[in-house]
């Protein structure tokens, strides 16, 4: 990737687009219909061009407060949570109508900490999101504000959007905000601040330029920078850009150098491998036959239950499994789609017999290739 070229965006297939409260709620004056209309039109255009899009939208609290007639943001958590409940449904209705006018269906996804950090729920969230994309549905995602507790809230949707990008292995994460991108100082405070067009997400010099957010937004550039670093874990490139710029997403898709590109610095497969390899503690072991070893190694395929000869350990769905060959050599490691109890019942079976054996259906793979790393 060359330093000044944005041509890679033109080949980005899976986009996570995040729109912040500052932009969406017109600085707190309720939901800005014009912003929603413009955003939806561009997302629909991206879909037309063959891209998959996931929208992470803030704005529930701000929209709810305005609907409830609050003149300022209350301090109490229960007031904010009530406002989020009122605002989220209003927000979704707007999106639903706007996307329907473009012939697209939306799905509301409200995520919490455990949905991305507890590995069984991580697998569920990942599978559900990918299934929605395969049906051509646009997921509209927000934090589950109404029930989340302070200790575990993401708080800002920049972090949530990056975690979603990790979940679906997005090619690009676009953080739409009220400024043109990341500047060398906060432009609200420094009139002469200049835009940083391109930097590596892990460049430590960025820490000193990224400042806090405005009144409504929660994280400012601090959380956007952190989000870019998180996104880089799945090899996702991040662009921070002004959401009011006409047709901004389309210009980006055409390779224009708008906003700030924070480069991930690693190929997606390597990033994902590193992440999986960092999950050092495994909870169970399966011994797999020579045929299974061969398909894992030579064609990078998933591990199916049919290739499993024996299993040990007490593990749950989402735990890390170590795979050994018949000679006891370590072959691979990955996230199990089934618990130890279940694997004991389905090992050696063809995937089409899983449902009748367990009494309920599940994935055909014991470890999906996306969640597997060869050793
Ligand atoms: N170096 C910087 N470059 C650009 N904006 C900055 C910088 N440091 C702090 N900011 C602030 O970050 C704000 C955007 O973040 P935030 O208010 O959280 O919005 P959003 O709701 O879009 O996430 C800007 O309005 C700006 O005041
Ligand atoms: N989940 C919250 C959004 C949190 C928030 O303000 O995020 P952001 O505007 O992206 O900094 C809401 O919908 O109101």
TrEMBL record:
UniProt xrefs under Pfam families: AA_kinase, PUA
Gene Ontology molecular function terms on file: ATP binding; glutamate 5-kinase activity; RNA binding
SMART domains documented for this protein: PUA
Predominant location: cytoplasm
Chain ranges of the PUA domain: 284-367
Reactions accelerated catalytically: L-glutamate + ATP = L-glutamyl 5-phosphate + ADP
Subcellular location: Cytoplasm
Pathway: Amino-acid biosynthesis; L-proline biosynthesis; L-glutamate 5-semialdehyde from L-glutamate: step 1/2
Record field: transmembrane: none
PROSITE patterns, sorted: GLUTAMATE_5_KINASE, PUA
Binding residue positions for ATP: 18, 177-178
Annotated EC: 2.7.2.11
Top class in the EC scheme: transferase
GO cellular component: cytosol
Entry keyword Nucleotide-binding: yes
NCBIfam families: proB
Family: Belongs to the glutamate 5-kinase family.
Protein name: Glutamate 5-kinase
Taxonomic lineage from the root: Bacteria, Pseudomonadati, Pseudomonadota, Gammaproteobacteria, Cellvibrionales
């Amino acid at each position: 990737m060359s330093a000044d070229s944005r041509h890679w965006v033109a080949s980005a297939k899976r986009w996570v687009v995040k729109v912040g409260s500052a932009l969406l709620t017109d600085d707190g004056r309720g939901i800005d219909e014009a912003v929603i209309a413009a955003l939806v039109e561009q997302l629909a255009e991206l879909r037309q061009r063959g891209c998959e899009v996931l929208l992470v939208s803030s704005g529930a609290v701000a929209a709810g407060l305005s609907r409830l007639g609050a003149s300022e943001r209350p301090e109490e958590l229960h007031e904010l949570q009530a406002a989020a409940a009122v605002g989220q449904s209003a927000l979704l209705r707007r999106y639903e109508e706007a996307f329907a006018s473009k012939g697209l269906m939306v799905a509301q996804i409200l995520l919490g900490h455990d949905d991305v950090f507890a590995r069984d729920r991580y697998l569920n969230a990942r599978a559900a999101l990918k299934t929605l994309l395969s049906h051509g549905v646009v997921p509209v995602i927000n934090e589950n504000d109404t029930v989340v507790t302070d200790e575990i809230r993401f708080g800002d949707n920049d972090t949530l959007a990056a975690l979603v990008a990790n979940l679906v292995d997005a090619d690009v994460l676009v953080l739409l905000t009220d400024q043109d991108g990341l500047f060398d100082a906060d432009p609200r405070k420094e009139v002469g601040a200049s835009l940083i067009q391109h930097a590596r997400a892990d460049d430590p010099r960025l820490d000193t330029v990224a400042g806090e957010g405005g009144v409504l937004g929660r994280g400012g550039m601090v959380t956007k920078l952190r989000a870019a670093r998180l996104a880089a874990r799945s090899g996702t490139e991040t662009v921070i850009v002004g959401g009011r710029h006409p047709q901004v997403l389309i210009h980006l898709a055409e390779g224009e150098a708008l906003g700030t590109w924070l480069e991930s610095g690693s190929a997606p497969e390597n990033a994902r491998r590193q992440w999986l390899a960092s999950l050092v503690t495994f909870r169970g072991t399966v011994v797999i036959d020579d045929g299974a070893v061969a398909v894992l190694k030579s064609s990078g395929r998933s591990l199916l239950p049919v290739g499993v000869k024996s299993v040990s350990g007490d593990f749950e769905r989402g735990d890390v499994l170590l795979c050994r060959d018949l000679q006891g050599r370590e072959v691979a490691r990955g996230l199990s789609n089934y618990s130890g109890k279940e694997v004991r019942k389905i090992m050696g079976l063809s995937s089409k017999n899983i449902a009748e054996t367990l009494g309920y259906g599940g994935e055909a793979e014991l470890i999906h290739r996306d969640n597997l790393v060869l050793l």
